[in-house]
Amino acid sequence: MPKTALFVIDIQNEMAGEGFSTAIPHPERIRATGAEILNRARNAVDIAHKENQSPPLELVFVQHEELPETEGELIRDTEPWKLVFNPREGESVPAEKLVVSNFAGPVSVTDMTIGR
């Protein structure tokens, strides 16, 4: 297993997708830069696989999730919750980050173990 990882954290439709209410400033830059970084990382992995070598890095996707009762936008299985960049077959399953509250005490985060 590689000792290097590229974490793709919270790049979801609500923040970086087109036409969503809470999009960050210049989301097109995030999408373009993210696509370029992912393409380079995936190319390195593909080359290693073609040469029967271990990949030089692991790609890890982290996905923010809110509970329906929090009235947040990032509710599981909704369009705002979906990732802008999806893991492809063979990449790590998204580690889901469930945030109960950012203001009422400690943030509760689910187990972020990388699955295959």
Percent of residues in beta strands: 15-25%
Indicate the structural class.
Answer: alpha/beta
CATH architecture assignment name = 3-Layer(aba) Sandwich
Element-by-element helix/strand order? EHHEE
CATH superfamily: Isochorismatase-like
The portion of residues assigned to helices is 10-25%
Number of domains: 1
Order of the strands making up the biggest sheet: 1-2-3
Briefly, what CATH class? Alpha Beta
Radius of gyration: 16 Å
* N- and C-termini, Cα separation: 12 Å
Work out the helix count: 2
Q: What are the salient characteristics of this protein?
A:
three-stranded parallel beta sheet, 116 residues, single chain, 24% helix, disordered C terminus, alpha/beta, 2 helices, Rossmann fold
In short:
The protein has 116 residues and is α/β, with parallel strands linked by helices. Helix content is 24%, strand content 16%.
Task: Characterise the protein shown here.
The chain is 24% helix and 16% strand. The chain is α/β, with parallel strands linked by helices and 116 residues long. The longest helix has 24 residues, at 27-50. Residues 104-116 have low confidence and may be disordered. Strands 1-2-3 form a 3-stranded parallel beta sheet. It has a single domain, classed as Isochorismatase-like (Rossmann fold), CATH 3.40.50.850.
Write the layout of secondary structure elements.
Blueprint: E1 5-9, H1 13-16, H2 27-50, E2 58-66, E3 95-99
Parallel strand pairs: 1-2, 2-3
